[in-house]
Amino acid sequence: MIFLLIWLLLIAYAAFLAPEGESPDPVFSNILSGEWGEIDPLVFAVFNSLGLFPLVFLTILLLHDRGRWPAWPFALLSLGTGAFSLLPYFAFGDKPSKSRTKKRTPRWLVRFLSSRFWLIVLMLMWTGNLLTLLQGFSLAAYREAYFDSGLVSVMTVDWFVLWGLSVYATYRFFPDASRKALAWIPILGPVLVMWLNKNKLPKN
């Protein structure tokens, strides 16, 4: 029920509590027009994170896709809608299925997602996103964007929900893994847990 409640609260926040700001949204307009230099680096890094979190969930969920509902549609949709797509799966679809003993994910994809190559790709993407902050960022500018832009407001709340979900998913799907506390590092943490417990990842 907790995931359902968070999902409803997230929808309510996006629909009723997030600031309307200017129309069209200035941050969204700058992203669409490619004028990324006009966006504060921290805002841009958080925006990019919303594309990296789903890749982590795609990896974790597809490696363990034997629940009541198929995980892949929710994981793929999260690339565009973040926690709005993942929360219903964790609320209802991630229940053990008595009739399913094998994963839905093809073996070749399981091998790829559990490979050192893919985990390194995720680490490099995280590092590249973090390097954008070296341009210099302003917490004051982020705070201003949060209250002026509906996009920044919603994506900030979404970021924290995804962060919490990623920690939960790591503990949920890798109960025997060592150093699970690393999962608290946003995005990189779950990847490091999989890297350090490579021998415990599903292979087929």
From TrEMBL:
Name the source organism.
Planococcus massiliensis
Which keywords does this Swiss-Prot/TrEMBL entry list?
Answer: Membrane, Transmembrane, Transmembrane helix
Tell me the superkingdom of the source.
Answer: Bacteria
Q: What is this protein called?
A: DUF2834 domain-containing protein
Question: Organism classification, top ranks?
Answer: Bacteria, Bacillati, Bacillota, Bacilli, Bacillales
The residues that cross the membrane are 41-64, 71-92, 112-134, 146-169, 181-197
